[in-house]
Amino acid sequence: MAVTTLTTEQREKILKPLLSSGWEMVENRDAIIKKYSFKDFNEAFGFMTRVALKADKADHHPEWFNVYNRVEVTLSTHDCQGLSTNDIELATFCDEAAK
Amino acid sequence: MAVTTLTTEQREKILKPLLSSGWEMVENRDAIIKKYSFKDFNEAFGFMTRVALKADKADHHPEWFNVYNRVEVTLSTHDCQGLSTNDIELATFCDEAAK
């Protein structure tokens, strides 16, 4: 089944909680971004490695930027040009991995 | 010894070759950037992992952006606010790792 963007109901139910926990909508784009800060590079890249394994397994990849202890993760779904449930799942995993 | 920015002579001898091999000066900043393209995310993140280990060992870290098979690496030295020999070394390693 083709990936589709989140419905209005899904945005209310599963996107909104993320937007209350540090994720933000990207300007002019149906995408979300979160800026994580870690103790050091070791922790930051450890986080990235966990997310990378998860992402590649799900064949759904982040756009991300890292410098030293900071990681900025942007999520959106290429196939539907917007947010899908795949992004919600990966965002939730990112939050878990960053704990 | 404090890290210092590259001298004019060093820029000629060790920076110039990098600028002939895909590295570019960042606009308005004493930093270099290179955009690598890999087969897929597995290769791209494999490259990042090798660079991450090297960088953390040398305590000299990249600024980098990744989406799927693409990795953009920016190098500059925080302590001297510009390019140092640490950047030349890490740039050279990146090129090796990307082969």
TrEMBL record, chains A, B:
Q: One Pfam family of this protein, by short name?
A: Pterin_4a
Q: Which reaction does it catalyse?
A: (4aS,6R)-4a-hydroxy-L-erythro-5,6,7,8-tetrahydrobiopterin = (6R)-L-erythro-6,7-dihydrobiopterin + H2O
Which keywords does this Swiss-Prot/TrEMBL entry list? Answer: Lyase
Q: Which InterPro entries match?
A: PCD_sf, Pterin_deHydtase
Q: What is its EC number?
A: 4.2.1.96
Residues that span the membrane, as ranges: none
As recorded in UniProt, coiled-coil segments are none
Which NCBIfam families has this protein been placed in?
PRK00823.1-3 (NF002018), PRK00823.1-5 (NF002020)
Q: Which family does the UniProt entry place this protein in?
A: Belongs to the pterin-4-alpha-carbinolamine dehydratase family.
The identity of this protein, by name, is 4a-hydroxytetrahydrobiopterin dehydratase
